[in-house]
């Protein structure tokens, strides 16, 4: 058994892997929240419900329509994004100029309705979703056994997160997007359809939650509570990273997953509270968050 300073490296590596997987989901979900709040100033409390919906849509597509994991990984986020566009157009936009609290309460209500509906339809027990055949098995490393599907989650999440950051921060499309949300009247004067940009941005931010839901389906049981269980943690991560900071949401999501994994190894009793403790410390030292800008 490989050890260093009395620490079991196999057990430590296993917890770090779990932390990175959780961090990948945290990063995807908090990225969607950061995009929606940072660019549109909407607090989307339905992000967790859309994550749950993504997992359920993948399960339903497989069991009712025979649509496999790979096709679901493309179609489900598109479907979730389409639902989000309808929500933005007909429910969120009419209250867009009101206090942020209105959008928070509206999306919280949507989350409760979706969770209640799926609990009524499928019960609260988890439903299994098989790992795709191409990603079964794993690789035996000197210090741990690395399951292929876990490695896939980490790699594809990093690609999606940093591609999104690059498009928003480094491309002309991202510049139009940022300018359109900061000064919509000016951009409309240049012929830019700002309402359309707003709707598509909201749809994309929520589609990231659907994408994370499909990735999570083979790892966790598909259940109506899976979204509510992760939502509070993700909001804490967004606060730690800095509300609206897109890069901060990604880095903080991954970092908090690792911190949580290390805490489970060294002091399991604190693993469920360490992220909130971290949030309190950050808010006391830097109220705008680690990557946020002071007002």
UniProtKB/TrEMBL annotation:
Annotated transmembrane regions:
12-35, 67-87, 99-118, 149-168, 189-218, 230-254, 266-285
Q: Where would you find this protein in the cell? A: Cell inner membrane
The organism's place on the tree of life at top rank? Bacteria
| Keywords, in A-Z order | Amino-acid transport, Cell membrane, Membrane, Transmembrane, Transmembrane helix, Transport
GO annotation, biological process: amino acid transport
Question: Membrane topology for this entry?
Answer: Multi-pass membrane protein
The protein, known as: Branched-chain amino acid ABC transporter permease
CDD domains, A to Z: TM_PBP1_LivH_like
Any single Pfam family the record assigns to this protein: BPD_transp_2
The protein's matches in InterPro entries, at most eight in alphabetical order, are given as:
ABC_transp_permease, BCAA_transport_permease
What the record says about family reads: Belongs to the binding-protein-dependent transport system permease family. LivHM subfamily.
The molecular function GO annotations come to:
transmembrane transporter activity
A GO cellular component annotated for this chain's UniProt record is:
plasma membrane
């Amino acid at each position: 058994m490989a050890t260093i300073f009395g620490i079991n490296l196999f057990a430590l590596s296993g917890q770090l892997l779990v932390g990175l997987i959780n961090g990948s989901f945290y990063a995807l979900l908090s990225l969607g929240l950061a995009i929606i709040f940072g660019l549109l100033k909407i607090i989307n409390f339905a992000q967790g419900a859309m994550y749950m919906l993504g997992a359920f849509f993948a399960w339903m597509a497989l069991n009712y329509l025979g649509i496999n994991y790979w096709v679901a990984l493309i179609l489900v986020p598109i479907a979730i994004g389409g639902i989000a566009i309808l929500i933005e157009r007909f429910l969120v936009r009419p209250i867009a100029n009101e206090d942020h609290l209105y959008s928070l309460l509206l999306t919280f209500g949507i989350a409760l309705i979706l969770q209640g509906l799926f609990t009524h339809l499928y019960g609260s027990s988890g439903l299994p979703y098989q790992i795709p055949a191409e990603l079964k098995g794993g690789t035996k490393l000197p210090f741990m056994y690395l399951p292929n599907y876990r490695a896939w989650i980490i790699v594809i999440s990093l690609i999606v997160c940093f591609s999104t950051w690059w498009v928003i921060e480094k491309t002309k499309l991202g510049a139009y997007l940022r300018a359109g949300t900061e000064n919509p009247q000016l951009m409309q004067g240049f012929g830019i359809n700002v309402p359309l940009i707003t709707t598509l941005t909201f749809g994309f931010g929520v589609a990231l939650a659907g994408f994370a839901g499909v990735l999570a389906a083979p790892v966790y049981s598909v259940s109506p509570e899976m979204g509510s269980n992760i939502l509070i943690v993700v909001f804490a991560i967004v606060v730690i990273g800095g509300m609206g900071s897109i890069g901060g949401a990604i880095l903080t999501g991954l970092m908090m997953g690792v911190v949580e994994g290390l805490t489970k190894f060294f002091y399991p009793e604190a693993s469920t509270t360490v992220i909130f403790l971290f949030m309190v410390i950050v808010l006391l030292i830097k109220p705008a968050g680690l990557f946020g800008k002071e007002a």
